[in-house]
Amino acid sequence: AKGKAQEAKGAAEQKGKEVKDKAQEKGQELKGKAEGAADAAKGKAQELKGKAEGAVDSAKGKAQEAKGAAEQKGKELKNKAEGAVDQAKGKALEAKGAAEQKGAELKGKAQGAVDAVKDKAQEVKDKAQGAADSAKGKAQEAKGAAEQKGKELKYKAQEEEQELN
Length: 165
Fold this sequence. Notes:
Order of helices and strands: HH
Structural class: mainly alpha
Largest sheet: none
Number of helices: 2
Helix content: over 70%
Oligomer: single chain
Strand content: under 5%
Number of strands: 0
Shape: rod-shaped
């Protein structure tokens, strides 16, 4: 009986060792698969992060372009308005000189023309300023939207990276 017990003990120990070795083998295999999946997930997160950063940079570039175009248009309109004002001033001065030569009656009429020209010049200048302000506002909106989109993409990439970790 003692011999049989020894034999059974030996067989049990052998079987236990085999089971333990198989479990370690399986554990190593699963560990390798998990590490591979983690590496793949990290790679995907990096890729998404890169895409998000690219989108942010692109949006910033577009916002800068829009801002530049708006500023350029504003300058053009301002220059046109200033040219019209200068031209109007020149015409007003000519009219004033003629009015002074012809006397008080013509001077009154010329003053009315001067005022009308000044009003028109101010109206043109105001319209140009309004267009410039509108263009600047649109550029600011585009910049804000681009930055918001960039933040969303970056946040999404960070979320996915955290989920993968």
